[in-house]
Amino acid sequence: MVPNKGQVLFVGVSMLSLLSSSFATVRYQPEQVHLSYGEKERSIVVTWSTGNKTDSIVKYGGGDQLLQSKSGSCTLFVDGGHKQASQYIHRVTIYYEDPDSLQPETKYYYHVGSDLGWSPVFWFVTPPMNLTGWAPSIAIYGDMGNVNAQSLPRLQSETQAGLYDAIIHVGDFAYNMDDSDGEVGDEFMRQIESIAAYVPYMTTVGNHESAYNFSHYRARFSMPGPYENMMFSFNMGPIHFISFSTEYYYYLRYGFKMLVKQYEWLENDLKEASHPANRTVRPWIITMGHRPMYCSNKDNDDCTLVKNRLRYGLTPLRLFALEDLFYKYGVDLEVWAHEHSYERFWPLYNYKVYNGSFDKPYTNPKAPVHIVVGSAGCQERVDSFNALPPWSAFRSSDYGYSRIKVHNATHLNLQQVSDDLDGEVIDDWWLIKEMPRIKFPLAEQMTTEENQIIEPSNVLKGL
User: Fold this and answer.
1) Where are the domains of the chain?
2) Is residue 214 exposed (0-12), middle (13-18) or buried (19+ Cβ within 10 Å)?
3) What is the pLDDT of residue 355?
4) Residues of the signal sequence (predicted)?
5) Cβ count within 10 A of residue 102
6) Which residues of 374-413 are buried (b: 16+ CB within 10 A; e: fewer)?
7) Per-residue pLDDT reduced to its tens digit, 2-18
8) Residue 122 CB: number of other CB atoms within 10 A?
9) In this structure, which topology does domain 130-444 adopt according to CATH?
10) Burial class (CB in 10 A: 0-12, 13-18, 19+), 365
11) Model pTM?
């Protein structure tokens, strides 16, 4: 029997379908490799992604051969968009105290993957044995996207030249990681691999991460603590860093209880960090939140309002006000982003300047110092300013990023790098504490009825 044309066509289509299913696209090759600090001070987490499920292995060594190996786990992440695009996110933690594991002040080479595919070889350098005597260098910025990420090439060069011990990104990644069914997030993570695979890349959540209850941000990064990257703290030499979500104040539909929980967590963390015994070991407390308390930009953002939600609290009861809390526990430096500009303020509390002295405002300041570092580069361009207010010390709309160098228990240096001016340092200043200080001068007066903050536990009882 001779088959007719319809039968031939059916057989052909069936064969193509069978071949397609037999040779379905698989993606075992690791990508989006990045580092972060782990739960313990002497640990490091290696994170990467694959399209399909594989083993999670890091091979590493202090020389040319990668003779040491550590295994971890992977988690399925499904984007909330129409395609429901999925990937597996792998995590491996290496603890310095493991036998024959990581030695201090050593350059380690590593690659990640499985027998089905390996990444290129990257490297990282471990901190010294004496962490309290360590003088770490950090690049810090916010608001960097895939499009117009102007600061990224310079950061790539400086990071791979060994200028930084860590990088901190204070919110707003990719613009936005969920766009195009998560493809924009994938591309962003591939782009930052050139810096994040060499030094810990620590993060703070921003408003551009809000889609699907911040799912991309919570899934893609690996910050310490139990709160899926939304709030955490870590120590780095003489610094205690605290990262928290300003977005809990604005996306209340995702759960008012998380705002209550964060405030309780913040106060407990600050109380422990400012205890005299701990403050002696780590004298510097630096907070990172995306939306600022203060700014002088020409827009209608909340930071232009006197009753800013973060600073003043949720009115009219002033629930969860952060300025009083940070002042009470002696936070030295508050780092913000969101505004696409750089701005440094005088030591500031409740819109009043509390300089250390007329000639040396940042020597023994009597209030925290705020900076805004949101000009790394994105498609929304930079922001302009209103007239200079008396509490703003320096500002610039140049694209760029900041460098923090903590030299010791008394001296912290901060520089602002202008990428528009080919890497020129346009602001260079020192924050100095010549004497031990646990609290600011007015902290003892903050128990008055006017400044009393409602206890979060009392709010929770009513929910």
Assistant:
1) 28-129, 130-444
2) buried
3) 96
4) 1-24
5) 20
6) bbbbbeeebbebeeeeebbbebbbbbbbbbbbbeebbebb
7) 555 455 444 444 444 44
8) 21
9) Purple Acid Phosphatase; chain A, domain 2 (3.60.21)
10) buried
11) 0.91
